[in-house]
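Can't paste images in this forum, so I'm doing it all in text. The chain is below; anyone willing to post the predicted structure tokens underneath?
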Amino acid sequence: MHFIARYLVVVVGELEYSFHGSLKNLLLTDFTTLDMLRVPGNTMNSDEEVVLVTGASGNVGREVVKALRDSNFRARAALRTLDERGDGPGAFDEVVHFDFGDSSTFPAAFDAVTSLFLLRPPPLSDVDRFIRPVIDYAAAMGVRRIVFLSLQGAGRNLLIPHTRIENIIESSGLPYTFLRSGFFMQNLDTTHREDIVAYDDLFIPAGAGRTAFIDTRDVGEIAARMLTEPGHEGQAYTLTGCEALTYDEVADVMAEILGRPITYSNPSLLTFARRMRGRGHAWGYIGVMIGIYLTTRRGLSEEVSSTAAELLGRPPRTVRQYVADYAAAWQKPDTTGSSA
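Text version of the structure:
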């Protein structure tokens, strides 16, 4: 367990990083080259809102962009690689190359931006190195509001980097809203999908703790409202679904809907860390994941909040609804060689 403790220290301490005048250099950058793609004929005037959505290709970011577009707001999808834009109806209307670790991508991304949706990429645990420069740049460019996707329990949980990011945003002077979300249901069809498909197992070290899951579709809808309407400045909203389930109960729901046994093996932290490392995940990322699941073990993820329902004007989606909607994600591959 010593090496796990070592990487938790990295998460808690957030490796110190010196800015060395990077912001000054960024402000002297030529803004005339805008490396982005736009929909032909989609002309905007200076009075319109431009929302920059980081993490736009992920579970939450994609839903934020969709909700903004459905509400006729201009959403600029910040992507690390432009080939993440996608095709068909789900493709982004406007994209820009953006890399948290490359300050030369900031000027084009923030051109004319009025609001920022900030999502910490899961592999980036060094807040001072990767996140603080983005917040400082947004403040320097006059961004009017920032909505940060935080985590349930942030503010009192020092094992997660979200708490430090909240503190940096508060000290930046930017009008802000924190969305302290519960565990995303969609992590089951992304991060944990491989174990469910291959082994019919929820390989998650959460103990017997309960989790107030929330669907990223609901989070995206709420975030879009926070980014485009007044009255939410300085607020920290805890967003959960309407129930708190153990992973044994989640496994039972999945088994019923998928029509095959699904178990919850509840691995030790060491076993979990070894498997994640074997799949190529960085130690910093693994440390953050362990920190999150430790909160569940300690009962810090079981609080059910009515805030999401109040902001949505309807009940949030349940785990049962989510599993039914995403059932195809966990279907086992056809190994018979038959074709339709």
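The domain at 2-12+24-38+45-330 is CATH 3.40.50.720 (Rossmann fold). Confidence is low (pLDDT under 50) at residues 1-47.
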